Amino acid sequence: MSKPHILSFESYDDWDSVPMAEAYDVHQFPASSNPMDLPEKVRNDIKAFAFKGHAHLGADIMDAFPNLGLVANYGVGFDTIDVAYASANGIAVTNTPDVLTDDVADLAIGMLLALSRDIVGASDWVRSGNWASSGAYPLQRTISGKTVGVVGLGRIGHAIATRLQSFNTDIHYFARSEKDTPGWTYQSDLVELATVADIMMVAVSGGPETAGIISAEVIQALGPDGVMVNSARGSTVDEEALLQALETGNIRGAALDVYDNEPNIDPRFAKLSNVLLQPHQSSGTIETRQRMGELQRQNLQAFFANKPLVTPVN
Known about the structure:
Blueprint: E1 5-8, H1 14-23, E2 25-28, H2 40-45, E3 46-51, H3 59-62, E4 70-73, H4 83-88, E5 92-94, H5 101-117, H6 119-127, H7 130-134, E6 147-151, H8 155-165, E7 170-174, E8 185-186, H9 190-196, E9 199-202, H10 216-222, E10 227-230, H11 239-248, E11 253-256, E12 275-277, H12 286-304
């Protein structure tokens, strides 16, 4: 009995690629990014995508596969997928929510700690011999007791806020509507949130609705003693405004796991001493990536078995 045909995007670890190959006839998306480089028979046979990565997946690619019925996304965010077009053409989209919430929230807190205490610089101070030759490291900044503004109170934003409670912080948040969060303060305006916050944690979903939501005005309101942590999407922040604020000291610092134009980020970031840079690795643990791959395959399995999808988006 022949196996169903699927199209795989980017590379997978063995714990994903081996079971995927056992269940499916796996074809690789062309390195040219042109789906027409695949033979017509292959394109006709493919009924599902195992989609991975942050490249745009739009009509130009989906239309090349006339029998496509599912885009199974490896990740919680699906802003790079044209879901509206997929829906209009009877193509289901799934994602991998929940399984990566803890790791993303953990890294956001880790970045905040690393930025506030300059953990990377302090480690270099010891390694270089400066501790012995030049004395104690310069004093850094406290997190406990500060006012935190969380932008987006979905699964990840809520997990970040919950973790920050243990630092005795005053939690304020921005969301589409007020949530049942006793002790936390709802702010309906982002500028007002930035004005009261010492620390801004960006956890809002990506996509057109949130593009540039952290505007120049919001960054200005955060002020010269404020810091920002972004573990959401680079598109949510006005990156030029952020760079200018960091370069001029209009905010104290930023910790970033996401950027515009990844991985070829603006080289100005690398020149700044008040920014902590991470390579979009918030879900980058073995445990979480294994769970993400398993959930992606569960959605593929459900689709080919004509069963309800596990985590449908549309």
